[in-house]
Amino acid sequence: MPDKISTGSVGVVKPTVQHFSDPLMLDCGRALAEYDLIYETYGKLNAQHSNAILICHALSGDHHAAGFHSEEDKKPGWWDSAIGPNKPIDTNKFFVVCLNNLGGCKGSTGPVSINPLTGKLYGPTFPIVTVRDWVESQACLADVLGISKWAAVIGGSLGGMQTLQWTLQYPERVSHALVIAAAPRLSAQNIAFNEVARQAILSDPEFHKGRYYEHNTIPRRGLMLARMIGHITYLSDEAMRAKFGRELKEGKLNFGFDEAEFQVESYLHYQGKSFVGRFDANTYLLMTKALDYFDPASKFDHDLVKTLEKVQAKFMVISFTSDWRFSPARSREIVQALLRNRKSVNYVEIDANQGHDAFLMPIPDYMAVFYAYMQQVSQEVNV
Amino acid sequence: MIAEGKKLRTELALITEWIKPNAHVLDLGCGDGTLLLHLKQTRQITGYGLEIDHQEIVQCINAGINVIQTDLNKGLEDFQNDTFDYVIMTLALQAIQRPDALLRDMLRVGREVIVTFPNFGHWTTRMHLLAGRMPISRALPNEWYNTPNIHLCTMKDFEHLCAQLDIKILQCAAVDTAHRSTPAMKRFPNLMGEVAVYRLQK
Fold it and tell me: Are B109 and B178 in contact (CB under 8 A)?
């Protein structure tokens, strides 16, 4: 744990695994007879249990949102910029819960877990899970933790979709919803990118129809490609230009295909390779499907206004100017539907050139708005 | 609470008297949310503020005011017809690219519209122009080259526009930054009023 950032950090944290033995009915028609959810918590739950915050993770995220796993750990959790003492999600005030979603590969039941019915890894037989299924399982965890109502549910990207789904599925259990860099459903372009990523994995000869574990291999190239495509969509043209430009790794052209020549190639290779070591290909496939399928308005004649009629939460919607994966216009669709229902909503479009990734970064304007809103939340729950 | 211990701008106090209790209000260019907060406390209104400046938005959030970051030059496309009892815009009309288009849009989403703007017909402005210089005053503190106020008008100009757009003027007042109204302002509003306040309807 690096000393210099230890003051604003929740410090060393340890995940907990909660086993659920009641079956969970899934959207796909199948059920999980039993399952585990791995989660971390930061801060203290108050006596009234009114200060609990749920953090929902995005595509490749997990339960480790803040702090370090050991003194030697070099990198903090994925949203350490926003969670910790005196940060927007202030752990001096709030009790923060973050879990790895079902289908994940970081400790919650997913393709790399043993199917209790067969005694073998789930692998490709793990059912396709939806955002609704996730919220259902998250609600089960809330019950175990004694949290009947979240002071806030917060998420960016796919996490923002879960946040939105919470307000629809359990309107009475969410006081505030912070929906960041999200959309009410994916666009055709979004789905197209996901499909290219999936095809990269599915067409890798090492994929073995998802049973690569049995062949003692992993679809390394496919997963790497999928991640590389993802990374292009997370950054903006401007951010890439600023970060890499046309810089050459060795300062000269090599007139060949063997090595990464441009810095941007090198960056994508690095991102792809490091991802292969820490992420499961079947999980990646599942997560992209959950994204594609998310469309709460489909049950309301594709009318988002009607869809949001029953939400009770107060909303804070945040988008980023250079985010083209989930552009500000997509966030505004949510805002517009809330306005038409006369719901409590704030909307801020942060001037940022980092693209979709901006939601994870400590951009001063973003943090200021985030902090101010969370102050309001904390005043409301008297913490 | 930002409005506490701070005297409300004269024209805001006047607007407050025009607003019926429990109304649904949209405030364009709401700044730090002072007016909406005051209306919430004194008239129990609901509604939203639209603002573009980041610092002001943070102030609104701190005050517990619902604020939507909006560029008013893009119009009010997020809002449906006749959604609000009042659509208010204080001292922003003159900074809009197309005040006429925005006025029409305001009357589309609101049953009544309240606008205030610095009256370019005020005698001090006329004095500046007579002296051959662009006016600088309490209501118009900027130089010509850095002013955000690109569409200044006199009360007469504004009323001419209303007539052209078929907008009904329900009420009108001229105020200055210190006084609600003086006999002179009532007799010669376009000459004596620093800030013009109008209540409008389609």
Answer: no
Give the per-residue pLDDT at A259.
87
User: C-alpha distances in angstroms, B160 versus B107, B117, B118, B140, B163?
Assistant: 17, 15, 16, 22, 5
Q: Per-residue pLDDT averaged across B153-173, rounded?
A: 96
Q: Is the pTM of this model over 0.90?
A: yes
For B69, nearest residue in chain A (alpha carbons) = A348
CB atoms under 10 Å from CB of A261, counted, come to 18
Q: Which of A50, A81, A108, A157 is catalytic?
A: A157
Amino acid type, B148: P
Instruction: Kindly give the pairing relationship between strand A345-350 and strand B24-28.
Output: unpaired
Q: What is residue A153's three-state secondary structure?
A: strand
Question: Is residue B148 very low, low, confident or very high in pLDDT (cuts 50, 70, 90)?
Answer: very high
The pLDDT tens digits of the residues spanning A149-202 come to: 999 999 999 999 999 999 999 999 999 999 999 999 999 999 999 999 999 999
Please say if A21 is a catalytic residue: no
The answer to whether residues B149 and B95 touch, using CB atoms and an 8 Å cutoff, is: yes
Helix (H, G, I), strand (E, B) or coil at A7: helix
Q: Which of A348, A373, A374, A375 to mutate to test the interface with B (most CBs of B within 10 A)?
A: A348
Torsion angle of alpha carbons A139, A142, A143, A147, nearest 10°?
A: -130
Within 13 A of A358's CA, how many CA atoms are on the CB side?
31
Contact A368 B58 (CB under 8 A): yes
CB burial of residue A295 (10 Å; 0-12, 13-18, 19+): middle
Residue B15 DSSP SS3: helix
Find the angle CA(A243)-CA(A244)-CA(A249) to the nearest 5 degrees: 140
Closest CA to A345 of A337, A355, A356: A337
